[in-house]
Amino acid sequence: xxxxxxxxxxxxxxxxxxxxxxxxxxxxxxxxxxxxxxxxxxxxxxxxxxxxxxxxxxxxxxxxxxxxxxxxxxxxxxxxxxxxxxxxxxxxxxxxxxxxxxxxxxxxxxxxxxxxxxxxxxxxxxxxxxxxxxxxxxxxxxxxxxxxxxxxxxxxxxxxxxxxxxxxxxxxxxxxxxxxxxxxxxxxxxxxxxxxxxxxxxxxxxxxxxxxxxxxxxxxxxxxxxxxxxxxxxxxxxxxxxxxxxxxxxxxxxxxxxxxxxxxxxxxxxxxxxxxxxxxxxxxxxxxxxxxxxxxxxxxxxxxxxxxxxxxxxxxxxxxxxxxxxxxxxxxxxxxxxxxxxxxxxxxxxxxxxxxxxxxxxxxxxxxxxxxxxxxxxxxxxxxxxxxxxxxxxxxxxxxxxxxxxxxxxxxxxxxxxxxxxxxxxxxxxxxxxxxxxxxxxxxxxxxxxxxxxxxxxxxxxxxxxxxxxxxxxxxxxxxxxxxxxxxxxxxxxxx
Length: 496
Prior knowledge:
- The chain is mainly alpha-helical.
- It folds into 2 domains: 3-399, Sodium/glucose cotransporter; 419-496, no CATH class.
- Helix content is 77%, strand content 0%.
- Helix 8 packs across helix 15.
- The radius of gyration is 22 Å and the shape is globular.
- The model is unreliable at 491-496 (pLDDT under 50).
């Protein structure tokens, strides 16, 4: 990389750390650090949601999908649109419209209200583990991008650099800094893609005629995928909008219910079609460039042995001129950081409020709590960096983290909000059975029936055990019954 590009990139990173330090001086307690002061508007929240959800893992992962599947890879983020809009209709009114959650900080606090503290503890552990893994995927995404872009930079060194910057920035600034910088980072990414990455790459590979000559025609359609892959994306990604800790933090950060809904509708549209087609298009251009031999000088002459997720970094390294390269790299790193910092904040919130808070009362006010939260965030960040050194595929690591949380948490949260017979015992059994099933199948079973993903079976087991456990071991009374009775002005009839 030319010294001009490197200077632009380094200045960008220094600017992010400076922004984090600014909010380090401004943050006064848990509201600022974990839920952004609870007064954010829909534009900042919406852009932060999509920046967090799409971010670097999906940006690099989408490039890999474009390399392998072509334009059909865009359907992965269609599930993001569906999930965002379903959450706006069915989840946000239940959470933001309930005054009980006006002072909430985490997703498991919903379980604590509808069930009991034991359920919240289990949910907090599952969420913390999942988001630690998700943070790792973003660090790995940044390292892969740096490794493919900077000459003589090995992957392990890139991991240390990306991990250090992401963790320090998050430790300093908290969620308020994350949300504001997400807005800036997303604007940088969109500008970089629309005005630099896509047009320059399209011209460099020779335009549409060259694309048609260089790749299989199926890559230029939107039907180049199996129904099993569609189911995999659907059951893994759509439910995360109902169990994602990063999303609950942003619901709590909104001014009111309508603000949250507008933010979610905006985020959905940015996911699909906007980001979806831009991401896979760049991956497709990378496939064309590889077929044309443009990456031979990088030692990637054999296209069949090229890691699909390194195609995009190699493309940008090859086609972008001095100056634009630094801007584009900053754009992609901004996307990566916008997800890494949010996921790290989510894991930290789970550990402090849901796990440590289960065993002792946590005072969320004052400098002492703030410093304790920052130390916790630093420790989790170090663990996430270690996890990143053990994985090689960004999208797999990210979707495994998703699957782990979805299998255990999705059915109980739907039951908590919408089924009066839901019980605490049923929720715990479903979390352990659903998550355990998915992990077991992913680790020990190579081929599942009909070629389906393990998460399908995990959610199914979770649903069956949740219903059975709730009916066999009912709670004496539930908040759902109380809410229904209040609406009907009737007394609550406890379960027998």
